[in-house]
């Protein structure tokens, strides 16, 4: 009996539950992106509209998700296992912390002043870096400062984006 005949005899079965879950998640993201960009005009290839990029992303992401889900039926892979909640907490928490501190916010009695990129950048990188198991605080601080300096040079000066640098200190 050849390998193809043996595979046909076994029928379709999930050989990699991790790939199947990843493919289905990508399809779900694609559907969400397509639904949220539904009302945006796509335009034409000569004159792109605001909906072209999210719709193209949705189609590409969905196609890759289908390919990954189908590959999970063909190729052996790893089983779906648990994941580290610590990584999710610190990565998403760092992004939320950055969003709340870069321009500041006020919610009832809670008030956070605008800290700007000078403080919010290192804060984001340091907080997200706490998710790693092999972290060293000294190295993480040096990395956060170096990356933030690069971000300030790129976004504030090279690209001239209106990102507050240090409104509490410099007024810019």
Question: In words, what does this structure look like?
Answer:
There is one protein chain. The chain is mainly α. Helix content is 60%, strand content 3%. It has a two-stranded antiparallel ribbon. The model has no long low-confidence stretch (mean pLDDT 86).
How much helical structure, as a percent, in the residues? 55-70%
Mean pLDDT: 86
Separation, N- and C-terminal Cα atoms: 74 Å
Q: Structural class, from helix and strand content?
A: mainly alpha
- Strand tally is 2
3D shape: extended
**Percent of sequence in beta strands:** under 5%
Q: Main sheet?
A: 2 strands, antiparallel
Output the radius of gyration. 23 Å
H/E element order: HHHHEEHH
Strand order of the largest sheet: 1-2
Count of alpha and pi helical runs: 6
| Contiguous uncertain segments of 5+ residues | none
Keyphrases for this structure?
172 residues, mainly alpha, two-stranded antiparallel ribbon, 2 strands, 3% strand
Summarize the structure.
The protein is mainly α. 60% of the residues lie in helices and 3% in strands. The longest helix is centred in the middle third of the chain and has 23 residues, at 52-74.
Task: Spell out the blueprint of helices and strands.
Blueprint: H1 3-10, H2 17-36, H3 52-74, H4 85-102, E1 105-107, E2 110-112, H5 117-129, H6 137-158
Antiparallel strand pairs: 1-2
Helix pairs in contact: 2-3, 4-5, 5-6
